Amino acid sequence: MAKKTRVTNELRRLRFEAGEMTQAELAARIGVTRQTIIAIEQGRYSPSLEMAFRISLVFGVSLEKAFGYSEE
């Protein structure tokens, strides 16, 4: 089992607030695979800074509203 990252995210909530956007739709809009979105949502993968910015832009929110960091 993959180790969870310290980067947290609100992707699932943001997708549903954006008219129940699917993982596949988000993936297509930022140019990654659906599996990448799944891994980010589950905390198994930390997106690059560029990818995090692209995700934030899709939802029209700041990085801080889409992602967080837990030191625990």
Distance between the termini: 19 Å
Q: Could you estimate the helical fraction of the residues in percent?
A: 40-55%
Class computed from helices, strands and strand pairing: mainly alpha
* Low-pLDDT runs: none
Sequence of strands across the biggest β-sheet = 1-2
> H/E series, N to C?
EHHHHHE
Backbone CA Rg: 11 Å
Strand content: 5-15%
Give me the number of helical elements.
5
How does this model look, in words?
- It is a single chain.
- With 72 residues, this protein is mainly alpha-helical.
- It is 53% helix and 8% strand.
- The protein has five helices and two strands, in the order E-H-H-H-H-H-E.
- It has a two-stranded antiparallel sheet.
- It is globular.
- 11% of the residues are buried.
- The model has no long low-confidence stretch (mean pLDDT 95).
Summary of the model, kept short:
The protein has 72 residues and is mainly alpha-helical.
Properties at a glance:
about 70 residues; two-stranded antiparallel sheet
List the helices and strands and how they pair.
Elements: E1 7-9, H1 11-17, H2 23-30, H3 34-41, H4 49-59, H5 63-66, E2 67-69
Helix pairs in contact: 2-3
